[in-house]
Queue: 2 jobs
Job 1
Amino acid sequence: MASGSYQCGQLSVDVASSSDSDLLGLDYQGRRLLLKPKISASGALYVAPGDDETSFWSKGERATFTVEGQAYPECLQAGALEMPFEATGNEPFWHARVEGKELLFNRPYETGEPETVQLETAVANRHGREFRGELDGQEVRLKVARQLCEDNMSGAQFPAQVRLELNGEVFQGCGGDPERLFRGAEWVVEDLAGTGIIDRSRMTVEFFDENRLAGMASCNRYGGQYERTAEGMTFDYMFATKMACAPALMNQEQRFLELMSDVKRANIGRQGELVLTTSKGEEIKAFQSTEK
């Protein structure tokens, strides 16, 4: 039976079996779900009574979590890696793709087709993983630490720092799925281009599956699509509901939506905040909500 803590992108989920029944309890964002077991071809599957679109499926250190049809990023126990796990480094370029017990590897200084290396897991703990293999008689080690990593050429951010050791030579890089940095949290805006926000007003940003974006704009709810590229992040197809509020709120909302439409970059700041930067260098800063 599934139990323990998982990280589904930015969403923390605590899972525990009930002592007096076969139900599974999930705690997240101040909420508690009770799910009942359901037959699954592999792993352990639990669904909400009367709602098959709310479910939790786990196998080993990985799980999937869906609430009312909304799928969160793959849920991982501490130190675990999503599979496949990809990492790259620059100057010289190298690329590694771990899938199960195999490494597809473009080694530094060489171009061409990737080579296959059989891996064994040398270290597995809550901080990350270390893999070891052999390529043409040379030892290959890939060390992965679950810490924010910034590409030294593009500035793009990744959820893991990666260290490659090949025949005694050391190369640094970044790895993991950048989506995990943004999804799974409701981000609450605390500063709008250096002007703060109106007391007791609320602007939020939330990233969903299928590149959907939604939140509160001050008075109205809004939605749209986001696109993440090597150069940054942009928002498109923005729309909002049509409620009317006090003029000050409507002005703030208009300013927020204008800035959002001009966002060109998304980063995680030093305090864990979301920083959205426009083409003019203006910033929207938001922190993870502590309530739902």
Note: The chain has a mean pLDDT of 94.
Job 2
Amino acid sequence: MRPGAVTVGAVHGTALVLTVAGFASTLWYGVDEPGHALAFGVLIALGELARWGAPPVLGELPGREPAPIAAAGALAYALLGESAGRTTTHGVLQIIAVVVAAGLAGIVPHVARGKGPDLDNLARRILTVAFAALCFQPLYNSGELTHYLGQGPSYALYLLLLLVLTALCDAVLGATMLRARTRYPYGPLLRDELRALLGIGSAVCATGTVMALGVAAAGLWALPVFCVPLLLTQVSFRRYAAVRTTNRQTIASLARATEIAGYTAPGHAHRVAALSGAVGRELGLSGSELTVLEYAALMHDIGQLSLVDPVPEGATALLPPEEQRRIALLGGAVVRQTGVPAAVAVVVERQADPYRDQPLPARIVRTVNAYDDLAGDSAGGALAALERLRLSTARDHQPKVVESLARVLARGGVTPVPPG
């Protein structure tokens, strides 16, 4: 069994143990304050029903919170100490039971449509909520928290510190599970998770805390009121993701122009883009760098449309350096007219330069493109192509990129990631 499978299994197993303990305790002792449990459960279930399912782009691995309203509701329930001025009595295990039951109820329609369940996200939420509840509920219910901190700035500072620790816990869990699933380097994955905290993650944490404080002052009527800002944020994120998806589809369609015209082999651009993304992850690229890499890989051969006679099978790696540079410059000029970031055009233009003069994305695209041109369909061709790339590391291909490509290929090529 792979070490990654052990890691994922341990996370799922811990979440399962907490779930069983939560249900067992709730069934044995009954539900404290059923009205509150029902209100927060309905909120979490509705949040799961409204989860967004925009497909991730290359620069954004699955794993981002797909149901922010549900996550905020679960966090608010974990941090709920009072309701309309009266102290609540629900405990940690009941919180876990309500969060799991409501989450499962909310994903049933998605499962019926064949879109779930996403066990990784569910396990992350269980463990994150359990962490927040364990750090808050025992101290609050015993009276020690308000005794030592009161209800003023010190109490707010404690909640802020708890939110930061909870967010870090979630980020570490997310990066750990993605590392186990994909075997990409852990550092860039953790950096991606931490960057996500500045976006929808911070909105989830802030909304969850404000919900808990609002219910403490005004009762359950505060829940729908404080859901509205996060709902609007979720709608905005969905529209933003839809625009990015449309842009990517447009670029992918443009990249097929060389295939339709017979200049490159079918699927070449998409193979290069997918493999370049895997190599980029292996080398620690993340976020916007991977988006630039993907766009450049898709359009790296667009300059061939200027040729009168197509290159046999589109294999530009076999052309003289001067011809490669001319095609690259023509391609960059075309890319600049498409409205993509200027960094994409720079990568396309500098494919044929010595690797020491190239930015890292250009080195990756050049090496992966050469591999796809040289490899063919046989395993022997792939090995021969890698050996030929290693023999060209004096000028054309950076050794670090070639070895990263070899590691990706040794793992089976592009590593699939779980749907988000």
Note: Residues 54-63, 415-420 have pLDDT under 50 and may be disordered.
